[in-house]
Amino acid sequence: MERITDYVSIRDNGKTRPSNAKWSDSPEMTWSEYWDYWGNEVANRWVYRGESYQANFREIGYEWVDFLFDETGFLAFPDIYCSPEAKILNGDLSVRCTMHPAFNVRGFSDDRLEEAKRDSLSCYGHWTPLPHFKRQVRNNKKRTDGIIEIEGNDGLADCMYFFDAQTGALVGAEPFTWTD
Fold it and tell me: Of 146, 155, 164, 47, whose CA–CA distance to 98 is shortest?
């Protein structure tokens, strides 16, 4: 699959910031100074299959977009912390695949489902077993097996979903803890 090149973030102050730029790579400055220096992102620009593209991802319906680890596209979420789906977009912004979180993907028993329901009712007064994605996590750029990791919730507890980055097929899930 063709790779995206020259991917940059266009800032409201006219600067462009390379996609791989990190705060830790900047000259000595505070977090506030860093954002004052770079400004806010207003669009992204890249080259795909020899053609230049530019987009403001929020304007086309995506609150959170992340560059794929293999540099062939983007992982896009309509909401940053509670998305009912995630899409993988190719470099030309066509949709490669759509992924949906699955309920009870780790196969909890009926007893565990009842326990989760009771806990939720006592804490929140209702039980809403709605699976959702939060966002891409860990450092997927280190993966070389074609699997994308997405933090989410399977309607019972936080988990890590694993999807094939080319087809969007769910290939597994495991519990997620903040120590990961």
Answer: 164
